[in-house]
Design a protein that fits this description.
Elements: H1 3-7, H2 18-37, H3 43-63
Amino acid sequence: MTLGEQRVQRSFYSSANPKVEDLKIKYAELIDVLEEMKTGTNARAISLAQTELETSCMYAVKALFI
């Protein structure tokens, strides 16, 4: 399991709704791309971006159910 998959909790509520699965896959991929870009000088900015993506994923999934 990649860092992105862990951070968006891909295994939680994954198969019940295909839209949820699609969103989580895309968000996980973005988090993983950012992780590959992380260096000593940009680590804080990358970590903040990853956290914001994680939050955005949560709200995107929530939006499917309201």
